[in-house]
Amino acid sequence: MSHLNDICVITDNTVFSVHHGVRRYLMTLCATLEAQGNRVYLINCTGQDQTEAVVLERSLLVDNGFIGNRLVGSSRSEILDFVRSSRVRELRDSTERVGVRSESLDKLPLRFDLCIVGAPWIAASISSMPMADRYVCVAYDAIPNRYYFDNPEDIGLHLFAHAHYKGYRWADEKADGIFCISELTARECQKFGFGGHSGLGVFPTMIPPGYLTLDASRIEVDRGRVALLAAPFDRRKGLLSIPSLVNAGQFDSLRIFGRPRCSHDELVSFFEKLDIEDIQWWCDVDFDKQVELYTSAKVLIFPSLNEGLGFPVLEAYACGTSVLTSNIEPLNQLVRGEDLLADDEVARFEQVRRRVDEVVDPMNYRRFVEKLCAAPDFGLAGKEGRGVFNG
């Protein structure tokens, strides 16, 4: 891939205000491509044919744009007081854009070797693409399209699903391929007929920047009876099953990071069902705080029901932290077999109880993820068997 020098990644404002997971993936992609010797440029579409060149700096690539940390509460009682009040809307309804810094568009090349459109709905909204030799679109999942058939009266879901459809059609008919974040996503796209012309590729497994360079002194630490939850406030992430799993472990403390993507009643019910009083909930965290949360925990509990990739399990491993996660794709392709939760609820509870008392070597998890993510290979097949990245 050494001949690919200039790569642009296209985003829109929703990537910096709403779709925090999408931004995390794209920043990981940018950092990985840069680490392999490419010049990567980020172009953000801010409105009607308006664009800005976004500076790819540490605050964005490593901290995901979260400049600082926001603590919601440091006890169950304090958090319940907050979520029962109207103040919780500040978190649930926030569309404030995270911190980015722009630079002159004049610094961009006139033509790129490769243009990566960061999401299908972005492709659907752009009237004019940058000049490039090749174009690909990133696919995360087909969940909006799948869920629309279950909720056809949901107008917002209908519009979002249609934007996915239009973007995938553009990538299939006018671009050089759709690239998926996992094999599962590729199969989902194929079921809906996406990629039938230009082809479907799969990105290699990557881990967000900073994790593989953590010093061992930050990993080999004593860990108490502390459980960690990563972005749990979403039904698709197993929200409804989490309180009973946490309670089964009889943990001394619980740490949580992530913004709510569930109803107000579900959020209140979640904290009411927890038996632990020592709870910290961080809404936004930068890299250092996230590492601190991972390395202070005995286990990350991540019973997701629908997952495009699953960065939290990779991040936890890189921090030497044990994981218990769902036996679904692609999560079961990323973790050790003993870290997969059983289907039976009683057996799951027993797994959590055993994990709390197990003596583990944190560096074993670190070595596992290093082997999985150390050298991502972008030599992937696209239209007519040609490599999307290496032509």
TrEMBL record:
The molecular function GO annotations come to: glycosyltransferase activity
Pfam families per the UniProt record, alphabetical:
Glycos_transf_1
Limits of the Glycosyl transferase family domain: 271-339
According to the UniProt entry, the coiled-coil residues are: none
What Gene Ontology terms for biological process does this UniProt record contain?
A: lipopolysaccharide biosynthetic process
Q: What InterPro entries has UniProt attached to this entry?
A: Glyco_trans_1
Record keywords:
Transferase
Q: SUPFAM superfamilies this protein is in?
A: UDP-Glycosyltransferase/glycogen phosphorylase
Q: What is this protein called?
A: Glycosyl transferases group 1
* Native species: Pseudomonas peli
